[in-house]
Amino acid sequence: MELTLSVIKADTGGFVGHTEVHPEMLEVAREKASIAVETGLVIDAHVNRVGDDLALILTHEGQPNEPDIHAFAWDVFQATTEVAKRLGMYGAGQDLLSDAFSGNLRGLGPGYAEVRFRERPSEPVIVFLADKTEPGAFNYPLVRMFADPFCTAGLVLDPALQDGFEFEVLDLHEDQAIRLSTPEDYYPLIMLVGAPHRFVIRSVTSRAKAEPAAASSTQRLSLAAGRYIGKDDPVLVVRAQNGLPAVGEVLEPFAYPHLVGGWMRGSHFGPLMPTSVPDATPARFDGPPRIIALGFQVTGGRLIGPRDMFADVSFDRARQIALEMADHLRHMGPFEPHRAGLDELEYTTMPELMKRLQPRWHPAGGTKEVAT
Ligand code: F6R
Ligand code: MG
Ligand code: MG
Predict the structure, then answer these.
(1) Domains of the chain
(2) Ligand 1 atom at minimal distance to the Cα of residue 132
């Protein structure tokens, strides 16, 4: 059968501060999700959270951007916002940027990744949910999963993977997109997506099967006044096995943490720490940034699972390394490169500071070369 897997997330209030979602909010979302299954709006639904972000994982027969599905998600987020307001949660309704729903969620605040595919006889899918980071954080693991034989052995061992993958990359500065195919475009791909604040991978497609392999949420990324705004805690869906990377190859890039933007005040770099679902509660300096991996077998559209993939002991060392990286970076305090560069700060006192200091600047006498 052909179906759509929609992962839709929003921060509708944090418990305490920006660290967690209150259990009553999850309960309300789960009640609404069971009604949506009972009434046949969706085939199946799973509700989860990472840090202060609540995620709806839905299977249905509609298309991506299906108005009924997006309206349902909007309704759930309104309901969890009501609970958040009643309990005085922090930043209640934070990601709901508009008062009115108008057809789909685009531009309204929630982020979503949607993949439409014909279900295989067995359909393993991994849903990644991340907090205190941004969509470019998936560039590195996606390149490793789908293009790096040092990570994905199948690229050299399995004939079904040898045609490689097509990456759809957004250029946030120029509002344009490009499709690059590996292995032949491997170097240009890395040149671009190695700069995750400008170039972001939106989707990956199997060239041999001409089928979607991965999709990430990028809705809130847009360029305003020469810099991009709308950094958003992202989600990623990856299909696995049988002509696609194996589950273990999909998880392997997270075995050694990479640095991502989005920690404290969206203005610091830190390691992306893979954790179990219960440990996805970023507390130290509002972090370090977290990622969880929910494994499902999608069977007749039903979400069999999830398995908490990063709960496995084989990720204990990654967590240890991430904590050591976090210590190292935290020692730098407000200095770059722990603090993000001036162009990437989510909010900054710089303009006011420069105005206030304006009368105190004087010629430096020699720092600028004089043209002769
Ligand atoms: C980072 C994040 C938090 C907040 C910080 C300040 O993405 O969500 O680190 O930026 O707690 O929050 P406010 O400005 O709401 O006090
Ligand atoms: Mg929040
Ligand atoms: Mg968040």
Answers:
(1) 1-118 (3.30.70), 126-351 (no CATH)
(2) 7
Q: Residue 59, class by beta-carbon neighbours within 10 Å (0-12 exposed, 13-18 middle, 19+ buried)?
A: buried
- Whether 7 and 127 have beta carbons less than 8 Å apart is answered as yes
Looking at residue 32, what is its pLDDT? Answer: 98
Which secondary structure element, helix H or strand E, spans residue 270, and what is its range?
strand 268-271
Q: What percent of the chain has pLDDT over 90?
A: 87
- Yes or no: say if 54 and 233 are a contact pair by the CB < 8 Å rule: no
Amino acid letter, 249: E
Q: What is the model's pLDDT at position 100?
A: 85
Q: Is the dihedral of CA 31, 32, 37, 42 positive or negative?
A: negative
Which ligand approaches the C-alpha of residue 110 most closely? 3
CA-nearest residue, atom 4 of ligand 1: 265
Query: What is the C-alpha to C-alpha distance for residues 218 and 190, in angstroms, rounded to an integer?
Result: 19
Q: Which residues' Cβ are closer than 6 Å to ligand 1?
A: 17-18, 91, 132, 262, 264-266, 286
Supply the Cα-derived Rg of the chain in whole angstroms: 21
Helices (H), the chain: 23-38, 67-87, 139-147, 154-157, 186-193, 247-251, 263-266, 316-330, 350-357
**C-beta separation of 197 from 228 below 8 A:** yes
Q: What's the pTM value of the predicted model, to 2 decimals?
A: 0.96
Q: 59, 40 in Cβ contact below 8 A? A: no
Checking if the pLDDT of 223 tops 50, the result is no
What is the predicted pLDDT for the residue at 143?
A: 98
Task: Note if 231 is an active site residue.
Answer: yes
Of residues 230 and 85, the one with the higher pLDDT is: 85
Q: Is residue 195 predicted with pLDDT exceeding 90?
A: yes
pLDDT at 173: 84
Does position 93 have pLDDT exceeding 60, yes or no?
A: yes
